Amino acid sequence: MEANLGQVLNASGLAKSHGLRTLFEDVSLQLSPGRRIALVGGNGVGKTTLIEILVGLQEADRGEVHRPRDLRIGYLAQDLDVPADHTVLDEALAGTGHVELAHKVHQLADRLASTSGAEHDRALAAYGEAQSHFEQVGGYALESAAQRVLAGLGFDDADTKRPVREMSGGWRMRAALARLLVADPDVLVLDEPTNHLDVDSIAWLETHLTTWTGALLFVSHDRDFIDAVANRVIELAGGTAQEYVGGFSEFVIAREENLARIEAAAERQDRQIRQTRQFVERFRYKATKARQVQSRVKALEKIERIAIPNRDELVARFRFPEPRRSARVIVELDNITAGYGDHVILRDVNLVIDRGRKVALVGPNGAGKSTLIKTILGQLTPLTGSVTLGKNVDVATFAQHQTEVLDLSRTVVEEFRAHVGDRLGKNLRTMLGGFGFGGDAAERRVGDLSGGEQTRLALGITMALPVNVLVLDEPTNHLDLASCDLLEDALRAYPGTVLLITHDRYLIREVADSLIEVRHGGARFHEGVDERILAGAHTGSASSIPTPPPSPAGTGGHRPSRKDLRRDNAEARKEYHQATRDLRKHLAATEKKWEKAEAELAALQADLADPTVYGNTDLLQDLIARHATAKDKAAELMNEWEQATLQLDRAEANFG
Q1: Residue 62 has what pLDDT?
Q2: Most C-beta atoms within 10 A of its C-beta, which of 207, 329, 376, 623?
Q3: Distance between CA 156 and CA 171 in Å, rounded?
């Protein structure tokens, strides 16, 4: 089934309020074939509300949505309805309208095998007729397409025959996504489609959506996914929607340029207003200037001030409580086999994680990442082998269900204090401010926060505890882009060791210094962040870890000692640091120069904001000239820093 390439969904002048709060006004957009639009914006700005208006689940307060009568819309919401009793394959085919016919064909095939004589002849005739009809409407092709989509989303052959009701929430979401992809609607609308996918499935979905012939609108916090799929970005912020052409990288550049133009226009307007007010104040009581004064007063009253959009950047400075010093080796896994009873998930795993490392666990869902973490934390006893936790290791964990334990009746600051106590002293509100709850936001009731804000609060509580090891399981789910930036800053500033399970490749690049790839029953440590591993199995993994054969009973095989493992890890780190040392030194030096130039530019901007300098022409001209020079220097150093970062990224991707 192909999308109708003539179909277009148009929205114009949309406005929506909740109570006294205006979510957005005058929003217009067009969903036409070939447009793949990413909808971005902070938590609570109305992204899901706008989507539901577009697909017809909500009504706008003002504005219109034009949907052609035969327009086919597919919508994947974050919250699914009660799952159906039919199988995963049936769910994937449900959007095509051929499920009942497929059932009839399969039932008649079963009937053929159990009948004889005249009844068999009648069953054969009915089967032939149903099979012919099924083939004519493309049923077999659709079934094949459904199998391919399900495989791409991580389902194996056995899973496709299981009832959807038996699957976990994440797998139900995948089945619902498969149904939409197989149905191939004219307009596909997806709300956070990557939340329950692993890196392999995300890589497959990116490839699938980049060839989508219909219209696509999606909400995502995954910058890599936006960059790979979107050819337009719409930002919902400050009650308005601004559309940019290109992916996420182009959006960031264009947005900054647009903001710079608006800020420059606002600055010019402010300067004109100050000059006009100075004229009015100076000549208010001079009769010969009365007409000019009145003219300027009226002009001031008519001026429509230029509004500078809120950048929604949660710029934070984190001051974590100093944890006690742990042993150099945080945890050591010696030839462990892990699983549940007779169900072995991981075999022959040997790992050493040192103090201060920031390690990301990557691999497909179900490969054993959570099993490995539970084994490391002592929540699961290995079937064979040993796990040794270092001395003075204190652990705090964040899981996807962490928000469920929050007390919704408390204020943010009360909930924060209840979990971390007053040991942070005066820094308690400072810490909250670092996680985006500064000022009055700290007094909001937890129950009034959005899902993303509750996630951010739970993360803040976890990271405020004076521990030296953080274990985070999918922390970016339900966060907006600004909150993801905040989390990255926090993890970089965190003084302890981090074990991170996430599908967010950008977060991994920004935070991790190494990877543990969990795949095919094994776990392998990689120094640095290898892009080939992040790309997933669908685009070629850097390593394929074969399932180790079970050791013969009663025989002992040679395996590396703990001393050998530590030595090998140390040598690998040494080689990595030597290979990138000069690039890292150059990057650090450039960053210091850039920060110094930015500080000088900020000081000059503050001087120019002082109204008194406009009375001294020589001083004003000198400041303007110095400001222009400083601005050019800062821009030059920023470009040099970006080039140095790119060189280091390439070196790290090629290492090993």
Answers
A1: 92
A2: 376
A3: 12
